[in-house]
Known about the structure:
Layout: H1 17-40, H2 47-78, H3 83-98, H4 100-110, H5 115-119, H6 123-127, H7 129-139, H8 145-155, H9 159-172, E1 174-177, E2 180-183, H10 184-188, H11 196-234, H12 240-247, H13 252-280, H14 304-318, H15 320-331, E3 335-336, E4 348-352, E5 357-361, H16 368-385, H17 404-420, H18 423-458, H19 465-480, H20 493-496, H21 510-529, H22 532-542, H23 549-554, H24 563-582
Parallel strand pairs: 3-5
Antiparallel strand pairs: 1-2, 4-5
Helix pairs in contact: 1-2, 1-4, 2-3, 4-7, 4-8, 9-11, 13-18, 13-24, 14-15, 14-17, 16-17, 17-18, 17-21, 18-19, 18-21, 18-24, 21-22, 21-24
The protein binds zinc ion (ZN).
Amino acid sequence: MNMHWDLNPLYESFDSKLFKDEMEKLDSISKDIVKWAENSLKNYDDTRNKIEHYLKYSIESDYLLDKLYRFIHLTIAVNSTDENARKYSDIIKEKVSFLTKPEVMFMKWMKKVDVEKEAENSELIREHIFILNEIKEKSAYMLSEDEEILISDMKRTSSSAWSMLQNSLISELTAEIDGKELPIAIVRAMSNDVSAEKRRKGYDAELKAYKKIETPSSFCINSIKGEVISLSKKRGYKSPLQMTLINSRMSEEILNTMLKAIKRKLPIFRKYLRKKAEILGYKNGLPFYDLDAPMGKSDRKFTYEEAREFIVTNFRTFSNRLADFADNAFENRWIDAEPRKGKRGGAFNSGLHSIKQCRILCNFNNRFTDVMTLAHELGHGYHGSRLYDESPLNASYPMPIAETASIFCETIIMDAALKNAEGEEKIALLENRISDANRLIVDIYGRFLFESELFKRRENASLGVKELKEIMMNAQKEAYGNGLDPEFLHPYTWANKPHYYLASRNYYNFPYTFGFLFSMGLYAMYIREGDKFVDKYDEILRNTGKHEIKDITAMVGIDITKESFWNESLNIIEKYIEEFLEL
Ligand SMILES: [Zn+2]
């Protein structure tokens, strides 16, 4: 079976006529919209027509950018040295930054528009009423046009540059193992080695390695968070957290309800961690370096063909639509699964709304976790497919629900595997699931605590390396409690998580927990309601791009402002843990 994806449905090559034509078309509509914005957004004559004109332009530019941008980046993803792709990547960035101006002008202009009134006689406006209202609300936090353009320009040499520096520090960092310098990514991967000695060695070497970059990393994190604080204040947000929540289309009340439910369940996770420590021979809780230690034994191997079969068959127990989507993705080469030189690591799904397809990159190595990764990315792809009939402007959804469909699909596959597993294999699968949940709930809670404290202190002054390490360890103690051995924490997770170095995404931690628990809650509903739930599920996905999160969930009768919803999700994990403790 062919394990390389087919990008021809986008373009045949960078030299193809279509690629060149569409690049030119993007240029011409960009120039037009800048001129149009300068002339038309001076007043409010004919407001309805102006909104419609801008929406039509947005849809058209979205279509072109989706195709062009993805083609360039998907090409780079499987061949990092492709010179054509690199060149066009710079060119397209330049073109995108050219579009900042009309965007800022339109947002500012929207401030005085009565969206509901304009929607009365326009279907196009009605269709986009949510995002238009959102633009209007966000315009309250905008500075003057000149300031906005200057800020977006300056970011390229400030926060973006700091985050690029951190990126290169980490990608070039090596750690010493038995006299050999190895890339830090390889050393970190030792954390789930079957050998206890190797896990410990990896941890020691990793901590030693971060010492080499701790000072520049601290400059990066201080500068990026400093910029976020200055800008969010100047724009009138109460805090960086408030800014993140507005962008996430959710309220602080919902976040707090979720956190409260989690705090209540922390003791269950500690029980699991102490049990795992006991099995591994520790008395004082689990050392950080054994969090990912594998338990039981799972050596079932899958060929790519068998992975397809396993996924499609088990997706079919949920719905034909989901199974057919996955089958079609394999059949029509939407997936690039073969690991090879020049191809990037990890996995992702790239939605291609413009051509109603998607592309999935992964590095398939015949293990069960690779099957899970495929299921995860296919889940993202399926989510995108539920939005194919929506306007592209209604097809992007906020971070907290971005992982809903992916984790849901993982759960279908995990449940199927657990059903058939016995003995050591069952322990391995179950423990793996719990350890994932632990990472997404307990560890991320710690990261949230760290970031909250970081923002609080950064308001007054820069933080030194010692202080950053201390805050991180305190956060871990608070999240893990006596589940972790306080002698062996990880004082450098602020240096190794790229999420802290993205100025445009702060608190890029709780959305993972939200997505995980929300998805678990949906799964609990599915188990309870059976086939009746399938249409509801699709309905939720279809609506993710044009409502507040709480309104999307309310459509299917879920109230995420109530602790009981979160408890139901946490109870599923609790059941897993109880089963593990018994085994
Ligand atoms: Zn994902």
